[in-house]
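[audit] Reproducing an earlier prediction to check determinism. Same input, same settings, fresh worker. If the tokens differ from the archived copy the diff job will pick it up downstream; this log only records the rerun itself.
[audit] input (443 residues):
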Amino acid sequence: MIRILSRAAPQARLSDVLRETSCRLHSTYDVAVVGGGIVGLATARELILRHPSLNFILVEKEKELAFHQSGHNSGVIHSGIYYTPGSLKARLCVKGATLAYEYCDKKGLPYQRCGKLIVAVDQEEIPRLKALHERGIKNNVRDLSMIDGKAIREREPYCRGIMALDSPYTGIVDWRMVALHYGKDFEEAGGKVVTDYEVKDISMVKESSAGSTEGMKYPIAIKDKKGNEVRCRYVLTCGGLYSDRLSQISGCSREPRIVPFRGDYLVLKPEKHYLVKGNIYPVPDPRFPFLGVHFTPRMDGSVWLGPNAVLAFKREGYKVYDFNAKDFVDALSFRGLQKLVLKNISYGMGEMYRGVFIGAQVKLLQKYIPELSRSDVLRGPAGVRAQALDRDGNLVDDFVFDGGVGDVGSRVLHVRNAPSPAATSSLAIGEMIADEVEGRFSL
């Protein structure tokens, strides 16, 4: 489901992919894409391939592309099991996984189809596991099957469970590498990438400077914090962790609000990598908003364990002590977060406790691999998830499109929420957003 907010009033070197150019005043383009994460890059790539005669620019506030969520994720190619049958998320994930494998094959990008087991360790989890199996079948997920404890041990010799849902189509890949290749495709098709360009204003060109032919043809001005300006006919923003603030720039509502949740991973020591062969996940508990801890092999040979899910005190805060006063106050003062916390206070306290005390996290993981011990793990990396919340404290699972107000609104499209698994679904999401752009702007 898409929510549209209407309002009245190879591994290539980075140097081969990125162009750290400074943008000059009065640069003009047909379409400007704001945001160089995997969704922005996939969409920019799709748009320029459809409209090679138009001029496109993509601007990114960091000095590198795919630097945040696209480069700080588990690296899983999801198969589409979890999502409501017939939903947009389900369709995009299933299609996106197929497109991702095809893209990697075409570009020669490495991946592993290592599979995933969703493991039940208690009898009470069996009905939920069977319901997941039925859901996956309805979503047309490939090659799903239910297996017993003996088959679990054949797949994962150190994993203990009484039943599992086996998804051999699930894989792993380096999503940042994939995203950078989207950017390379965009540039090779004639698009321009400008990094270190943090957008601070999106507005109509003032009448005094719009009298020229250029001003009439390119009526939107995008300015960065350094005073540089790009003029264009249309703007698409894919801002991830800052999608709500980018929307506000052009006069949109503050909601849905982005609240950052940090996920801290543990890593398995190299001498213990033999304990895990593929992805091992718990049966989701519908009482809680996130999936729970799991085992994730990585393309570099490492194995990540976790994550927890705690409020980050900075939108791009990957360390426990990262803090930004504006982000902190913005999150805690939001009624939606307050309600979410009250509804899940015991769960949230447990996540915070496990984030501090590694032994508590290991205890959860031992339900699946009893041989795992505290001495087998180290603190690992972290990621920050841009979770969209409404004012009632509900996680927003829909894609949310929004425009500005007045004349700006007819020329700006904000992607305010591209929910997980956005990396897996990125090529399919890019097609969907490109359709929306074409419909709104009559490209």
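[audit] rerun output stored. Observation attached for the diff report: The longest strand covers residues 377-389.
[audit] end
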